[in-house]
Specification:
Layout (H helix, E strand, L loop, with lengths): L9 H9 L1 H7 L4 H10 L17 H14 L1 H14 L7 H8 L6 E14 L2 E11 L7 E9 L7 E2 L2 E2 L1 E7 L4 E2 L14 E11 L3 E2 L17 H28 L15 H33 L6 H25 L13 H12 L13
Parallel strand pairs: 1-3
Antiparallel strand pairs: 1-2, 2-8, 3-6, 4-5, 6-9, 7-8
Helix pairs in contact: 4-5, 4-7, 5-7, 7-9, 7-10, 8-9
Length: 369
């Protein structure tokens, strides 16, 4: 697979890393970084071409997200989540979609949790709720939210024996951004709570991600959303692992452990740990991308992939995430006390990885058996 430096230029990577600690202090992406995102149209990579977007293949998008995570996790996370939410453009009718998403600065922040209530009314719904972890809230132009559907009497609507829910998109003016995100990593992602109170949402701004799009023909809008979300999240931790691995290699050539007589790169114990962790990680990453291509080819041909291929693909995504974490946590103890400083680059990668790993899609409890 391509190295992150083959996806985005070394100059861009260097500029993002140079601003990384300043970005953390701001707890929000700075103007210079946002201007770069808008210029490169990274928020539009999963928007349909007919809505003004770039409509990348999933492999292209995932490699971009990984490369940005490799550069700086705050940027990678915001682009990953923002572009992923902007993909909902493919689930809206073409006029609505183009009106909202044919703008470089359009960015949706939202939540996948069903935490709101939507009461049916003439022409739409009255939406109320509070949702957590809306990454990119500080630069978002719109918010997306999932809510249970209620009829006019307030009774929950049922579909195939289950409570019905739908997804909603509203302009930021109709939502309250609580600016309450404070975490040890991903500090600048502004993953805040947001709240919507009794706001009318027209039917045209309501969509259903549980089914393939009825409006966009592109493969990404017919690819199962769960599989897409799983590999998007995994690209964050693989990008961080790649950065940590390379940072460790540089450190190992210059650092002798306390009471040691040779550099880490020459120490048998350290080298055994590094070689095993890095080779396992790189092999898992390659397998994940190869299986993504295989599964994608079926959907490109409008065919359903064999169940065993889908299972292998999802297991490969789980494995890549697991081995990324293992690489970081197995190399971390070799790095000495310098790495405990918050101003140490490897400490930042470690902190960001710790927060990324808490996403429920990366939990061992979500692993496919």
């Amino acid at each position: 697979m391509l190295h992150p430096t083959e996806i985005i230029s070394g100059q861009i990577i260097d500029s993002l890393r140079q601003r990384a600690f300043e970005t953390e202090e701001l707890r929000s992406l700075p103007k210079e970084t946002l201007d770069l995102i808008y210029k490169e149209r990274w928020f539009q990579v999963l928007v349909p071409k007919k809505s003004g977007g770039l409509e990348y293949t999933l492999s292209q998008a995932v490699q971009l997200f990984e490369a940005l995570a490799y550069a700086d996790a705050n940027v990678g996370w915001c682009v990953n989540l923002g572009a992923g939410a902007n993909m909902f453009s493919g689930y809206l009718n073409e006029v609505v979609s183009k009106n909202i998403f044919d703008h470089r600065k359009t960015c949706c922040a939202g939540s996948g949790a069903v935490r709101g209530r939507a009461i049916k009314t003439t022409g739409g719904y009255k939406l109320t709720g509070r949702w957590k972890y809306a990454s990119g809230a500080n630069h978002a132009t719109h918010f997306t939210a999932n809510a249970l559907l209620l009829d006019e009497s307030g009774a929950v609507l049922v579909e195939e024996g289950q409570p019905m829910f739908r997804s909603f998109i509203v302009p930021k003016a109709n939502a309250t951004n609580h600016k309450n995100w404070k975490a040890i990593g991903l500090k600048a992602t502004s993953s805040n709570d947001f709240e919507i109170n009794d706001v009318f949402v027209n039917d045209e701004f309501v969509f259903d991600l549980k089914k393939p799009s009825a409006f966009a023909d592109g493969t990404v809008y017919h690819f199962p959303f769960l599989y897409l979300a799983e590999i998007n999240m995994t690209s964050m931790i693989t990008g961080l692992a790649m950065h940590f691995m390379e940072s460790y290699e540089a450190l190992a050539k210059a650092k002798k452990p306390l009471h040691g007589t040779v550099y880490l790169s020459e120490d048998d114990v350290a080298q055994t740990i590094f070689q095993k962790a890095s080779s396992n990680f790189l092999e898992a990453r390659l397998k994940m991308y190869n299986l993504l291509d295989s599964v994608w080819d079926y959907y490109e041909r409008k065919e359903t992939p064999p169940e065993d291929l889908i299972l292998d693909f999802r297991k490969s995504v789980n494995s890549a995430a697991k081995l990324s974490r293992q690489l970081i946590y197995e190399l971390y103890p070799l790095c000495g006390l310098n790495i405990v400083s918050e101003q140490n680059e490897m400490n930042k990668i470690w902190r960001d990885a710790a927060v990324v790993s808490q996403h429920y899609l990366l939990s061992p409890m979500c692993e496919v058996n």
